[in-house]
Amino acid sequence: VAVGEDEDTVSLGSDRTDSTAQLTDDEGISELETYEQKVREAMDLALEKSVHTRTNALTSLTTAFQKRVLTPFLLDHHQTICDLVERSLRKGRGPEQVAAARLASLLILSLSQVNEAEAVYKMLEPVLTVALTDPSGPLAGRQECAYTLALSAFLACHDLADVTSAMNTLHSVFSGSLPKGNGELPNHPPAVTALHTAALNGFCLLLCLISPTSIYTMANKYVLSW
Q: What's a Pfam family this protein contains (predicted)?
């Protein structure tokens, strides 16, 4: 995947010589249709057998949604993109999981002004939670899932129960860095510390959605669980 520094251009590449396309940010209805067609091609590439091709396609989709607001397009295709994200989070490893989690964030951000954002969150929350809490999963992927779960809940959740559920999931991750019973702090490798930091940052973001009374109640519960 190549992003041009001097022009708004995203190259969608794969292992195949005939599968390279350009997303060029110019004006005009016909150009928008071309742009959307290239997004569809990237969606197709995200189903390829090659891990490299899938990862590049997911990254290109994220870049495409960063460069243009494609809400009408996403209203028609969000289910397909959710399927791509879920597949890569379940079966992918490392960079593919990272790319899938980032795409999930951009999808919900792009839909954050419409009701479908909450529906997308409810579709992706289970697989994000599984990937985040899987102790055998790649740490980079788990870290990105922590960011995505928190940001997605912040943008899309209107039900307090959904927010607190996400917070409980994040707490279950960063609690691994809390003091042990003897008061001693755990000593983790940097990658584990980065994961716990991401989960804690996400937890703090979601605190912004909670009333002071609820925060007080939650604080007592978490303190007692130490």
A: IFRD
What residues have CB less than 8 Å from 82, skipping those under 6 apart? Answer: 104, 107, 120, 123, 124
Number of residues assigned to the chain:
226
| Per-residue pLDDT, 27 | 52
Is 10 in a helix, a strand, or coil? Answer: strand
Specify the pLDDT at position 185. Answer: 82
pLDDT value of position 218: 82
- Any idea what the Cα angle at residue 33 is, between residues 30 and 34, rounded to 5°? 90
Q: 118, 33, 19: which is closest to 68 by C-alpha? A: 33
- DSSP class of residue 15 equals S
Weakly modelled stretches of the chain, pLDDT under 50 = 1-10, 12-24, 26, 28
Contact 99, 58 (CB under 8 A): yes
CA-CA-CA-CA dihedral for 108, 111, 117, 120, to nearest 10: -60
How many other CB atoms sit within 10 Å of the CB of residue 220?
Answer: 10
- Give the single-character DSSP code of 179: -
